[in-house]
Amino acid sequence: MYLVSKFFTSHSIPVPSLPLNQTNCKTKTGADAQFKRVRQKRGDQYRVVGTNLCLQKLGRRGTKIALKPCKKNNSWQLFTGFRGDGESFDIRVRKQKGRCLTNHHHPKKDEVVYAESCYKAHKTKTGYWTEY
After folding, report:
1. Of 3, 77, 101, 115, which has the fewest beta carbons less than 10 angstroms from its beta carbon?
2. How confident is the model at residue 95, as a pLDDT?
3. What's the CATH number where 103 sits?
């Protein structure tokens, strides 16, 4: 997932019940999903362009992130940490500030994006995102 002109890009569009996977975002295909940042009062939602699907942390326990119908009052769909200044940034679950969106390795094809502890994500340097 990379930020492209204020849009996140992921190269496989999962159905709402499946995890969010990523591939090499430097090449675009017809299967790309772009995520637009929608500012809310208490954080940002990330909506798939052209749909009503948003990133959502699935509950208090666990690390799963999925696409669910957007609801601006759903605190599990709110994230913080975006920086539009060209520097790397982390994306934190608003309701659990100690959880950052990450993947198991540095961006690699078919890696699942999930909400890991920010400490671990930063230690392995997989919890940082870049705007392109």
Report:
1. 3
2. 92
3. 2.80.10.50
Whether 132 is in a domain gets the answer no
Q: Two tokens at 52?
A: 């009503």
CA distance readout (Å), 13 to 18, 27, 29, 78: 9, 15, 11, 20
Determine, yes or no, domain membership for 131: no
Cα distance between the two ends of the chain? 11
Instruction: State which residues form the domain around 97.
Output: 2-123
Cα distance between residue 83 and residue 69, in whole Å: 25
Q: Flag whether pLDDT at 56 surpasses 90.
A: yes
The more confident residue out of 111 and 114 is 114
Q: What is the 3-state secondary structure (H, E, C) of 14-81?
A: CCCCCEEEECCCCCCCCCCEEEEEEEECCEEEEEECCCCEEEEECCCCCCEEEEEECCCCCHHHCEEC
